[in-house]
User: What shape does this take?
Amino acid sequence: IRTAGAVSHVGMIGLTLGWLASIPVNNCVGQGDYNVVTDNFATPAFNDGTAVSLKSKTFLDNLDTFHHTFLYKRPKSAGTYHNFDYTSTADTDDFQQLSLNRVWDKGLLLMYEAYAPYANRQNYLDPKTGLLSPTTITHLENVGKDALNQMVLNAVVSGIEVTIDPNQNVLATK
Assistant: This one.
């Protein structure tokens, strides 16, 4: 980002991480109402100092197609914005967006917190098959659902499903 009269560089990674910390995990940092820099004098630029506005639409479209994230100005709109929240992975990748990663990460943290008390605890198993009892499976699935339910209530995700494979031999799983 360049400012009028002098060049001062602000790293995009730090700026993006700071911005991500201030928005809900399921929101895209490139969402239209997220104005990253409110200083109207700030000019988004690439590492070599070239202003984004000096690049052609084709160039910027190609960057976007290859999932590079950059800052830009919107016509007739104050501020500076992210083009999207790509992670430079394929369109088919489950983790192609920062917002998708952040939702998964939040869910994993909630699940870890919920299941931590069950670590190294005795569970009821069939001694011949090593399978968990149906009651244990139902209980553990409900623990996971309870942990994730707040994400549904807060509209972070539209729904959840927690399943434990009843045919998993937990004695053989390491």
In short: Residues 73 and 80 are 5 Å apart (CA to CA). The first strand starts at residue 71 and ends at 72. The chain has four helices and two strands.
